[in-house]
Design goal:
Length: 122
């Protein structure tokens, strides 16, 4: 069975005297049951911890916090919603243009690698 796990990491830079930062990652897992998926998500989370020195010579730590969500998928995964976020912006046209630009970059990459493009009218 397939599962989606939301892994949470805390990002600390230097002494941590900054606005708290967290990275939320959605990971697709295949496991026999929910307990196995949960154990695998924790193992992946722990293996993703990292420490490095940034360009300002500050120690940056990515510390695994926990698994915040674990969702089972039954049936087909084709077309399943994996992520959703409501975004508020003060400049809607700029956001729409940014989305179209990102899509354009994907199309360009596919064209460069000679992948088959499907024409879609938006």
């Amino acid at each position: 069975m397939w599962y989606i796990a939301k892994l949470i990491y805390r990002i600390t830079c230097g002494s941590g005297a900054h606005q708290p930062q967290f990275d939320e990652q959605l990971r697709l897992l295949e496991a026999e049951d929910e307990a196995a998926a949960f154990a695998r998500a924790i193992a992946i989370g722990r293996s993703g911890e990292d420490r490095f020195v940034n360009q300002d010579e500050q120690l940056v730590s990515w510390t695994f916090v926990d698994v915040a969500e674990l969702i089972a998928f039954e049936g087909t995964l084709d077309g399943a919603e994996l992520y959703s976020q409501v975004r508020e912006t003060e400049d809607a046209p700029a956001y729409v243009n940014f989305v179209h630009y990102k899509s354009h970059c994907i199309r360009e990459r596919l064209t460069a690698t000679n992948e088959r493009l499907v024409s879609i009218d938006l």
